[in-house]
Structure formats: C-alpha cells, structure tokens
Design brief:
Oligomer: single chain
Largest sheet: 7 strands, mixed, barrel
Order of helices and strands: EEEEHEEHEEEHHHHHHH
Length: 376
C-alpha cells in the first residue's frame, strides 16, 4: 500500500519512524456529468476572474479571504516554517481507556507501518504495551495543512490510528430530542427486548452494499443494450399507529427469518414484572343501590317480629307524611317525613311498653290465682 505521510511516533524519548497508510477506501460508484442532448462531457475549468484565462494546477496557490474580500496569499513555505512540533511527528500525549473516547469524535482511519528495520523493535514495544495495558494512546499530528487529534490502538499485529475531531468540533444535540413527554410501558420494553434478542448478533463480514450492487447491475445491463432491471418490491411502510402490534409483528418476522417455528414466535411469554396493585373501581349507581336494598332486606327480615306490633302506626304515619306533594320531596316535605318518623317511633315504643306491662300483669294475676301447696 502506498504511504501518504512519513514521520515518526514520539513515545517519550523513544522515536519510531513510521509511514502512514490509508486504512479505508471509498467503494462508492462515481458518475460524470454529461450534456443530456448529445452526451458530451461537462468539464469545469479553472479560470482567473481578472484576465479570464484558464490556469493550470502549478499556477494555483492559497490565500485567506478577509471579511471585506481582501485576499492574503499564503505559500507552502510559510506553512512549513511554522513552529509546529507535530509537523513530522505523531506526538503521544496520554494513554486512556478506550471507553473515554466518544464515538462521535472518530474520523478517518490509518495504518502505521514501521519504516525500516531499526523501527521494528520500538514499534513492537509500543504495540505490546498497548495490548497489555488495554488502553489507547491519544496523540497530536499534522496532516494536510492542519494539526489533528488521533487515537492509536492495536488491530491484529498493526498499530492503527484513528483521526479524532477536536472537542469543539462536536455540535451539541440541542433541539434534536423529542420535545414531548412520552411514557414507555413495561410491556413495550419487554417486546423491544424480545426483538433485540431475536435479531441477535451479526457477522459484519456478511453485510454488503445492496445499493452499489444494484447500480452495478444497472450499468452492466445498459452497457449490453438490455433493459434496466425491474424495480424490486419495497416493503410496505407507513405511520406506526399501534406500537405493541408493530413490535409483536417485528418479533414474529425476525424469528421466521431465522427459521424458528411459529410456536417459538410467540411474544406473549414475557418475564414477569412486579405490578402495582390495581385500584378498585367505584361501584356504579345500580350496584350501590342493589347493595343498599340487600342490606335493608336483611335488616328487615331480622327486625320483622318487632315491627308487627307497630305496622299499623307506621303505615298511618307514612301516609300522612307523603300526602300533598305527589311523591316529590321539598324542604317542608322532608321535615314532615322526619317528624312523622319520630312520632311513629314514639308511638311504637309506647305500645310496646303497654303490651309488655299488660302481659306482666296477667302473669302476676295467674300466679296469685293458683292454690298454694302446703308442705306435707
């Protein structure tokens, strides 16, 4: 692989000569711009605004544009003369756990190759030290006209370096999260867990770019003069209305894709969770009325023998209190009914007392009328 940068790793007082090699490549298909009428190639020419002449790459330099449009020329010699310690050096500044690196900072990836035989020993020393410590090295380096931040880690038997964005280059996620309050139920989380378990792990090597394959198929067909391939059927989509139903269907589809039985695709057997005790619903008016009437009936059956003697008085008092209003209660009618009930209770107690006294008198008279037995 062709190196894009030569320098050294500064590891304390140890210097490791290395070559920088791209670890990734862009495999996307690129297109040219053409004139749709005749198929002619569209080219962009670099033209000077002052004289209108086209210029070559050797005649093009750099300049910084001020706010008023003034151009300040900057040459490569000016940049090379800057007192930058990382111009040709990857300077390691710290060793930290990999978990401290925010994945948002990770940029391009490079392989660091030992440059020459003398670099093999210190290169191997740094590699093995990174392996044993289970940490990564944070470094600063200069590439393509700017100083960058990097992370060194071990990949197989090679030291790889990931370019990192500076912390102030990471934007804050303001206004990105949902601005509405949403409550997620335990049952929905259970189904989401079941879906994640069903999808399981994947071999990254088995994944490929379906879009690039379709574009290559299209280009091959057009090159042979054939018709373009028929469009593939897209999966039906739309707005999710019932989240639970969508989760259940997703779990079933994932398990069927893995070749599991339909019985195994059941998503109702979920881990039991503690639930709060359900609140008792208030009784409806009909139910409460039925309970009251049942209680009144039971009480009436118990007190029936005591009420027989007062039934006539109660009936006469009830008819007197309910008359003149046609069954409707107003303030005066309620007072009359209350007074009638008190009168009924008093008359019932008086009649009960009289009957009791009469019964006791009869028993006493009967005892007196019986002849006394003389002692033998």
């Amino acid at each position: 692989m062709r190196s894009i940068w030569n320098g050294a790793i500064s590891f304390g007082l140890v210097s490791i000569p290395i070559k920088l090699v791209n670890a990734t490549e862009n495999r996307s298909i690129s297109f040219r711009q053409i004139h749709t009428e005749d198929g002619g190639r569209i080219r962009y020419r670099k033209v000077c605004e002052l004289d209108g002449e086209e210029v070559t790459g050797d005649e093009i330099g750099k300049a910084y544009e001020e706010a008023d449009g003034t151009m300040i020329p900057i040459t490569d010699e000016d940049l090379a003369a800057l007192p930058l310690p990382t111009a040709k050096t990857i300077e390691i500044v710290a060793f930290v756990p990999a978990s401290q690196i925010d994945p948002l900072q990770i940029d391009a990836a490079y392989y660091l190759s030992a440059n020459g035989v003398p670099a093999a020993k210190p290169y191997t020393l740094l590699r093995e030290a990174l392996k044993r410590s289970e940490r990564v090295a944070i470094a600063k380096f200069a590439l393509r006209g700017r100083e960058r931040l990097g992370m060194l880690r071990v990949v197989d038997d090679v030291i790889a370096m990931h370019g990192l964005l500076w912390p102030d280059e990471i934007r804050r996620p303001e206004g990105v999260a949902p601005d509405t309050s949403v409550t997620v139920r335990d049952a929905e989380l259970d189904l989401a867990d079941a879906l994640m378990d069903t999808l399981g792990e994947v071999d990254i090597e088995s994944l490929h770019d379906d879009y690039r394959a379709a574009v290559e198929e299209l280009i091959a067909a057009k090159a042979e003069g054939a018709e373009a391939p028929a469009p593939r059927e897209e999966k039906p989509g739309g707005q999710v209305i019932d989240l639970m139903a969508a989760l259940e269907s997703s779990v079933r589809a994932a398990r069927e894709a893995r070749g599991e039985d339909e019985q195994d695709a059941s998503v109702h057997e979920l881990p039991a969770r503690k639930k709060a005790p359900a609140r008792s619903a208030p009784a409806s008016p009909k139910e409460s009325g039925a309970k009251k009437s049942t209680a009144r009936t039971a009480a009436g059956k118990t007190a029936a023998p005591a009420r027989k003697s007062t039934s006539k008085a109660t009936a006469s008092a009830g008819s007197a209190g309910s008359g003149g209003s046609g069954g409707k209660d107003d303030g005066k009618g309620g007072a009359r009914k209350a007074a009638a009930k008190k009168t009924t209770a008093k008359s019932a107690s008086k009649s009960t007392a009289k009957s009791t006294s009469k019964t006791a008198a009869k028993k006493t008279a009967a005892k007196k009328s019986q002849p006394r037995k003389r002692a033998s």
